[in-house]
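Morning!

This is the sequence you dropped in the shared folder:
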Amino acid sequence: MPEQRLDYWKQGLGRVPEEVWRTAGLRALVLAGNGLTSLPARIGELSALHTLDLGHNALTCVPDELGALTGLSRYLYLHGNALTALPDALGRLTRLRYLNVGDNRLAQLPDTIGDMAALVELRAQHNRIARLPDTIGGLAALRELWLRGNRLAALPASVARLGELRVLELRENALTAVPPALRGLPLLRRLDLRANHVTRLPDWLAELPALEKLDLRWNAVEPAPRLLDALARRGCVTLL
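The structure's back. Tokens below.
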């Protein structure tokens, strides 16, 4: 029996169609690009969903009932809206592997983000985030963290607990130094620090065992030939 899926991508509907509430066992729902300005609390009734796409709408908030979708395990897309906050109830989505909240107006992520223990990829690019919650260190399965175009001047010490992290994008933030919390991350392969305010490179960068690419373009970095040579000998590509 084929999986129950409804795809209303870019149909300009303006509201959630009634068919959604009548479809038993709905597993994937795509409502992207429909000019939605609100999401009914009834969304919490769709308990069988593993994928929900609400991207590229005009949502300014999402209801707490979103946290009732504890079956969400694959994707939750909320990018390209006008969200200024995310509900604490989002932390109940403990099976979700991919979350995209990029291109919104978020000033912060909820503290409960650290409860989303199954997250493998978190995208929060192009928001207004000035700090990450300390609970971010609870994302023990996280492999990719995308934070381009925010207002981060530092990262919390708990980032050091992200032992599965492979990709960290911090481009276009307000960092003046390479965050010390990254020291010792065993699997970090790609670190993007483009267009920050970094002036000095710490020697410990050469100790990151898996680092393959370090991008520092559009920073006023002081010369560090010995460090750059050490990275090059290990096969790490450094872009200045």
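Headline: The CA atoms of residues 51 and 75 lie 5 Å apart.

More detail when I'm at my desk.
O.
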